[in-house]
Amino acid sequence: MEETAKAEEKKIGMTEAWLRKHRLVYIGATRHPFILSIRDGSINIDSYKTWLAQDYLFVRACVPFLASLLVKAWKESDEDGDMEVILGGVASLEDEISWFKREANKWGISLSDVVPQKPNINYCRLLESLVSPDVEYTVAVTAAWALEVVYQESFAHCIEEGSNTPPELKETCARWGNEAFALYCQSLQKIANRRLQKASDDELKKAEVMLLSVVEHEVEFWNMARANV
Ligand SMILES: Cc1ncc(CN)c(N)n1
Q: If you average pLDDT over residues 15-42, what whole number do you get?
């Protein structure tokens, strides 16, 4: 790698360097038409309901993934604090699942009848592949950060000044757009950067490919919500 690029990455961290390198792909996820339609108030509520029902299934699939990340942190991490950060993420999933149940109830959605759609199946499959002990902690934590930060940046955009988000969707946006969730994402990013700094070229390559794969799956997930209206 070119020396200046190396120095730049040291200063800003590898994850930030990758987000800059793949900016258009990242913007494609965080400023997706689904998100923009929430922000400008033009959202078709059926697409919101599709997203809600499908995301409930996705969040359930996040539980074993994050639990496996906790195991990797326990076995592979060089810092005690990593486990606390990830444990906080695992613990918050219980509240998140309860929220999905309440929100689905509010919109008359029967979650037990929801059938996972192809983009969701594909994304859950990716999560399941990360559970394997063969996947390095560095690669898995990069994936965890990427999938959370896309939601954080997307939904924060819907509650920024100048947004016209429908009042009934503001609570949803605040779930991922709030400051505490942003701090959780920053903690995951710090872990990822620390690990990536010490990673081999092979691991770095795998983590960068994983970041891109996660972001592409996020785009497909938003596309799915809009395709069903
Ligand atoms: C598809 C998706 N990506 C990320 C998140 C944030 N945990 C989520 N709930 N759903």
A: 98
